[in-house]
Amino acid sequence: MDNFTTPDLFDDHRDHVQVADSGLCHFGKKTTFSGQAVTVTCPEDNSFAADILHEDGKGKVLVINGFASKRFAFIGDIMAERALKNSWEGVVINGCCRDIEILATMDLPVMALGSTPRSTLKRGFGDKNQAVTMLSTTINPNDWLYADVNGLIISSAPLL
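and the corresponding structure tokens:
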């Protein structure tokens, strides 16, 4: 269990961290998580996110750049099950998710801008290991993310 609060981390490291603006909502049952960022770019297509969740996610947080789209859901219950099976610490989405009534029962932390029932297109578009700019922050691959009910903190070095 992660033993921190983001307000305390901010107070202790304010000169060395970024804080995401308000706007991310929690959709998973678990709301406190941390890990190193693995980034995928998903232009209305979650193919890259779906693929990367087959990899070992121990100590990692998947950051999906949906370019703040509210048209499509970039993760749902099937991808969340895959993430849990492969030990991902959490998922942060610059976009929406779906199946939120199921996500709410799962131990996978999911933070997103909202929800919508529409799934993405599946065309194989996207990229890995790109910086994700969202909510006045830039998340780079391998940055350290710390999240709880208060919000999201990004650091280039581990804080705990």
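(Above: one complete record from the training split.) The two ends are 13 Å apart (CA to CA).
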